[in-house]
C-alpha cells in the first residue's frame, strides 16, 4: 500500500475495560479536527465505540452490525449464515459496502462490524469471511485514516490487513492481567508481521503506577498516559462523547499524536 500523507491506519487493543474504546474515540476526534477523513471501526464483539463518539442511543439502536446482516453476507459469499456445509467465497466483494454501512457524526464515520471469531475457537464461516474482507479493504485500500477498536486478540487482522497497520496501540492499566494481555499481544503482533507496537497507559493514580507499568513492559514503547477520571463514568451514563466529558483527555491525545505518526521511541515516560 502506498503511503498517503496525513493518512494513518491504527489498530487499538487491550484487555477488556482498560479504555481502548475511549482512546479510539479521542484519536478519531483529534484526527477529524485536523481535517482527516476518519473511518472508525468497531470490531469488538461488544460494540461501544458509537457511544464513546457521542452518537445518539436511538441512532445506534437502528444500526445492525455487519455480522448480523444475513442477506448481505449471503449475497456476497454465496452462503447463508448459520447454514451447515457448502461452499462460500473467502474473498467476497466489499469495496462498495463502507458507504452503505457507516453512520457519521462531526466528521467521523463509524462502521460497526460486530464480532469476528478467532479461527482456532470459532468457525470458518461466511460471517468471518466478509468481516475479514471488509477489514482488509479498509486498512489496505482506502485512502482514509482508519482506526480499529479491537478485542484483545489479533487474529481478525490476519497477515494481509496487518501489513497495512502502521501502528498497533495496546492500552494498559495498572494490573497484572492487563500487563499479561499486553505481553501476549506483543508476541502475536510479531507472528502476523506488525512492525510498530506502542503502549498507552490508562487509569493512572500516581507516579508509582507509571513506573510499575514501564518496568513490567520493558522493551515496549510508551506513547503516553491518562489519569484515572470519574468523568468517563459520567460520559457513559449520560451518553455524551468522551471529549465532551473529559476535555483534558483530548488535549492529552493532541500531545501524544506526533508519536502516532513517527518511529516508535524508546521506552520512556514523561
Q: How would you describe what is shown here?
A:
- With 270 residues, the protein is α/β, with parallel strands linked by helices.
- It has a single domain (9-257), classed as 3-Layer(aba) Sandwich (Rossmann fold).
- The protein contains 12 helices and 8 strands.
- The protein has an 8-stranded mixed β-sheet, sandwiched between helices.
- The longest helix has 17 residues, at 176-192.
- It is globular.
- The protein starts with 8 loop residues before the first strand and ends in a 10-residue tail after the last helix.
The gist of it:
With 270 residues, the protein is an alpha/beta fold. It is built from 12 helices and 8 strands.
Write the layout of secondary structure elements.
Elements: E1 9-13, H1 20-33, E2 38-42, H2 49-52, H3 57-61, H4 70-77, H5 98-101, E3 103-105, E4 108-112, H6 126-140, E5 145-149, H7 158-162, E6 167-172, H8 176-192, E7 197-204, H9 207-216, E8 221-227, H10 231-238, H11 242-245, H12 247-260
Parallel strand pairs: 1-5, 1-6, 2-4, 2-5, 6-7, 7-8
Antiparallel strand pairs: 3-4
Helix pairs in contact: 1-12, 4-6
The CATH architecture can be named as 3-Layer(aba) Sandwich
How would a crystallographer describe the biggest sheet? 8 strands, mixed
Helices and strands, in order, run as: EHEHHHHEEHEHEHEHEHHH
Query: How many beta-strand runs?
Result: 8
Q: Could you say how many structural domains there are in total?
A: 1
What CATH calls the topology is: Rossmann fold
Approximately how much beta-strand content do the residues carry? Answer: 15-25%
Helices and strands: which structural class? Answer: alpha/beta
The CATH H-level superfamily is P-loop containing nucleotide triphosphate hydrolases
Question: Count of helical segments?
Answer: 12
Low-pLDDT ranges? 1-6, 117-122, 264-270
Helix share bin: 40-55%
- Give the mean pLDDT: 86
Net shape = globular
CATH class (first level) name: Alpha Beta
Rg over alpha carbons: 18 Å
Distance between the termini: 34 Å
Amino acid at each position: 500500500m502506498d503511503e498517503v500523507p496525513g493518512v494513518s491506519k491504527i489498530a487499538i487493543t487491550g484487555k477488556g475495560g482498560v479504555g481502548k474504546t475511549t482512546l479510539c474515540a479521542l484519536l478519531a476526534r483529534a484526527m477529524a479536527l485536523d481535517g482527516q477523513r476518519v473511518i472508525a471501526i468497531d470490531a469488538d464483539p461488544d460494540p461501544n465505540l458509537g457511544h464513546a463518539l457521542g452518537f445518539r442511543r436511538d441512532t445506534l439502536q437502528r444500526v445492525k452490525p455487519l455480522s448480523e446482516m444475513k442477506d448481505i453476507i449471503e449475497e456476497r459469499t454465496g452462503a447463508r449464515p448459520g447454514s451447515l456445509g457448502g461452499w462460500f467465497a473467502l474473498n467476497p466483494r466489499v469495496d462498495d459496502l463502507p458507504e452503505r454501512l457507516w453512520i457519521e457524526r462531526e466528521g467521523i464515520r463509524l462502521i460497526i462490524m460486530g464480532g469476528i471469531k478467532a479461527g482456532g475457537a470459532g468457525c470458518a464461516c461466511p460471517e468471518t469471511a466478509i468481516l475479514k474482507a471488509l477489514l482488509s479493504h479498509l486498512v489496505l485500500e482506502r485512502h482514509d485514516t482508519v482506526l480499529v477498536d479491537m478485542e484483545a486478540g489479533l487474529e481478525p487482522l490476519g497477515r494481509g490487513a496487518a501489513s497495512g497497520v502502521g501502528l498497533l496501540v495496546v492500552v494498559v492499566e495498572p494490573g497484572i492481567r492487563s500487563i499479561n494481555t499486553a505481553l501476549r499481544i506483543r508476541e502475536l503482533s510479531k507472528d502476523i508481521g506488525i512492525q510498530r507496537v506502542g503502549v498507552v497507559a490508562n487509569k493512572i493514580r500516581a507516579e508509582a503506577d507509571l513506573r510499575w507499568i514501564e518496568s513490567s513492559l520493558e522493551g515496549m514503547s510508551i506513547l503516553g498516559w491518562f489519569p484515572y477520571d470519574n468523568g468517563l463514568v459520567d460520559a457513559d451514563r449520560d451518553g455524551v462523547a468522551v471529549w465532551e466529558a473529559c476535555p483534558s483527555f483530548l488535549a492529552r491525545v493532541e500531545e501524544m499524536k506526533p508519536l502516532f505518526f513517527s518511529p516508535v521511541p524508546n521506552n520512556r515516560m514523561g
